[in-house]
Amino acid sequence: MLVRAKTFTESGRRAQIVEAAIEVIAEVGYAKASFTRIAKHAGLSSTGMISYHFAGKDDLLAVCVAEIERVTGAFMQPRIDAAEGHVAQLRAYVEANVALVGEHPAAVRALIDIVKNRAARSAAVDGRLALFEEHFRAGQAAGVFRPFDARTAAIALTTGLDAVVVTAATDPPGPAELARIGRELADLYVRATAPEAEGGTR
Amino acid sequence: MLVRAKTFTESGRRAQIVEAAIEVIAEVGYAKASFTRIAKHAGLSSTGMISYHFAGKDDLLAVCVAEIERVTGAFMQPRIDAAEGHVAQLRAYVEANVALVGEHPAAVRALIDIVKNRAARSAAVDGRLALFEEHFRAGQAAGVFRPFDARTAAIALTTGLDAVVVTAATDPPGPAELARIGRELADLYVRATAPEAEGGTR
Amino acid sequence: MLVRAKTFTESGRRAQIVEAAIEVIAEVGYAKASFTRIAKHAGLSSTGMISYHFAGKDDLLAVCVAEIERVTGAFMQPRIDAAEGHVAQLRAYVEANVALVGEHPAAVRALIDIVKNRAARSAAVDGRLALFEEHFRAGQAAGVFRPFDARTAAIALTTGLDAVVVTAATDPPGPAELARIGRELADLYVRATAPEAEGGTR
Amino acid sequence: MLVRAKTFTESGRRAQIVEAAIEVIAEVGYAKASFTRIAKHAGLSSTGMISYHFAGKDDLLAVCVAEIERVTGAFMQPRIDAAEGHVAQLRAYVEANVALVGEHPAAVRALIDIVKNRAARSAAVDGRLALFEEHFRAGQAAGVFRPFDARTAAIALTTGLDAVVVTAATDPPGPAELARIGRELADLYVRATAPEAEGGTR
DNA sequence: AATGAATGAGGGTTCATTCAT
DNA sequence: CATGAATGAACCCTCATTCAT
Q: Where is the HTH tetR-type domain (chains A, B, C, D) (predicted)?
């Protein structure tokens, strides 16, 4: 590769600021992640520097989200793709997401906090919601999920997953424990969505 | 009891401020719920009034949480108590919580927003988490829940419930739709926690 | 009068801030009249105090304009009303406006500077322009002004008047000199608008 | 002159910046004409370029003024020179200045805005003022103007002219309308300064 | 018990200017 | 010649809290 494309997170300072922002958000939370704190964390002398590199706070946050998704996607995507069938993919998604905590705890915590607090819902959160919903519908059509309300399930399960991930990320346990938690949660979700056994549940 | 004791949320002004705070948080969100906005909403001429009646923002918020829990508890508790057995109570809790949206949408939204944003975890959230966890453990001992990780399940299911509730509270549907959503979510949770059927995982 | 109505410039601090703002604008000009400077001039410890009393910079400026107009109107109106006929009133307006410099030099300079720089044209400037235009039209109908373009004349003569006033206000001369300048300018305007003499001008 | 000397506004980049600055000032006004905006308008990647070519903001502005005067002078001077006599020249100046709006509306608006806002009075504005004053005195000596206060008249008439020009430049009308306005204004000024007719005015 | 003015820190953003490359 | 990152001050505004009355 002769010419390396310059992605929008690169250019040195920009990347540095984004990284600092992610760490600060992971540390003190979205609400207290001010430019001042981010600048200090990044070793910058003034907040003006951030405004110089980003159009505003929303812009910075959007870039942070994009960067985190890039990093986490690189970790999760192969694991999900390796699974075959709707059920296995659901399990793979959940387990990969929990395992991700071991690799990028700050990024994971920051992402969830940003998404939770942003007024304008990012494409990220809505995208994942739609993805789950669609996945459930497709699985139902294929007969591997029972005919529950796909939207309600998508909301409950994605946010439940987030909560487990955040809890784990707050004080990251070892890989084995993470794997166990991932398996537990996947079990929960697989059973919640599984087709009726003979006798029913109620 | 002939004379009702004056609870600590009463005394006129205090109650008025708490009510205003809850409504403001429900309307504009925790982050933008400043004393100024709350005072304006309560018809107060200055924020000094709030500081006079409450030790600080944390105090006000704590009282708000307590008040909301009092109100919501009055709605939910009878419904939960009416259910017999761990499974039925789980279902009752979930359905009551969703139904609550129809009665107190502002309170419900405010509570979840406060709990989500408070640095210091309130006794409320931890209490409910412990409650669920304990409920799961007891049910497992009784053989009506399968032997999953009670803590992970408690985290995932309580927050999933919250998310469904918040979504519903944002634009509250009619009672019938709320009942349907409640049933859907309860189904999901009951199945997730149900003991193995004869043939494995279904 | 038993109960004195509280006008919107009163209440102590508000009036003090308005006064300080007017003086600062007169001194350093609209562009450099920051809250910081105004607060310092008013003996306030922080700019927050100004924001506490006024909704924003625009609000403060609007109140300044209103206050100046109140003060200047009290000076000019009787003098204008005392004149009879369109020509005499034109002369009276011009002379009163120039004489005003001797009474309220800062207010006069501030007003013109605000009006000149405000993006949103105030009712003040447009009002005066319309007033002049209407006055010219009425005088033309009465045959005491010649049939010139009333709008162009209104623009040129009001701003010319402003310029003379500002120049005089920069280093206010004595009343006699002000009276002379007022008379000179009034002469200019009266002649510019006078009906044709027998021989014509061109 | 075979080889044209390179004036100080030329040299490519400088001229480009000056042109951009004039356009930006005409568009958004003096107050909001920052280096950032000018650089963006000029297609420059940073404001450093401007600081590199000009000693400071005042310098840039001074060069802008000089450039505008060069351009406008080229339009107005021949028209003024073509007129004979003090009265005719006054008329020619006014009419040429208004007509100029049709040719260089941006330049005209920018010039007046700069002159209005600059703390340090430019040689330009003072020069024109002195020019008018001198012209009036000379005409008075020649008996073609009446013996008014030359300075007061110069102030009032030049700024009145500016105001008419700015108004016209804000939404430039066609040449015919401009010519009419110019004639109207010139009439006003010629009459204001004309010697007494037999009967007097007062 | 209540008021409302005052405080001082901190929020994000824009600015003209500088300087190493 | 030219770049663009860096600077540091200033901008208006909002905040929770305090305190004399």
A: 17-62
